[in-house]
Design a protein that fits this description.
This protein is α/β, with parallel strands linked by helices. Helices cover 39% and strands 21% of the residues. The longest helix is centred in the C-terminal third of the chain and has 16 residues. The model has no long low-confidence stretch (mean pLDDT 97). The protein binds flavin mononucleotide (FMN).
Length: 149
């Protein structure tokens, strides 16, 4: 069973609901998720054995939500060695923007640049297609859990 740090980026609450739902599904499967909102990079780095799961929306024009900005900035500035870290990304966005799910894409890139290894594909949830984003996340997390078992 895995320890997981769920790092949340949300302005209006949708990504928070997804994080809560995913955390309860992970718990039901016997894993140990912990939600970080707002997240501190230092806290996450203190647990290198835990898998990181970023769950973030996008705001502005492709921007990371305010509550996740310090985490992303520290990652970009400090460039920690994350070779031992495994992670996943659930991105929420609206496909009518050119910058669809750019917040999640940026976190994905920053983590990969620091050497972290992504487990499975990133999930990009188009909120225009999924009235309840938790449903899309639920389908994805079941497959993802098979990869972390
Ligand atoms: C002002 C504003 C700007 C947005 N900009 C983007 C964007 O650039 N790219 C994108 O994919 N979605 C964008 N969205 C859509 C949000 O990411 C989407 O509604 C998401 O579900 C919000 O999640 P949250 O409630 O957790 O913040 C924007 C939404 C708002 C209200």
């Amino acid at each position: 069973m895995a320890k997981l740090n769920l790092v949340v980026g949300s302005m209006l609450g949708a990504a928070e609901y997804v994080a809560d739902h995913v955390a309860s599904l992970l718990e039901q499967a016997g894993h140990q998720p912990k939600i970080h909102n707002p997240a501190s990079l230092a806290e996450v780095l203190a647990e290198p054995d835990a898998i990181l799961l970023v769950i973030t929306s996008t705001h502005g024009a492709g921007d990371i939500p305010d509550n996740l900005l310090p985490f992303a900035k520290d990652l970009a500035d400090q460039q920690p060695d994350l070779n031992a870290l495994k992670y996943g990304v659930i991105a929420l966005g609206d496909s009518s923007y050119d910058t669809f799910c750019q917040g999640g894409r940026t976190l994905d890139r920053l983590l990969a640049e620091c050497g972290a290894s992504r487990i499975g594909d990133r999930l990009d949830i188009d909120v225009t297609q999924h009235e309840i984003p938790e449903d899309a996340a639920e389908a994805w997390i079941h497959d993802w859990m098979a990869l972390i078992a």
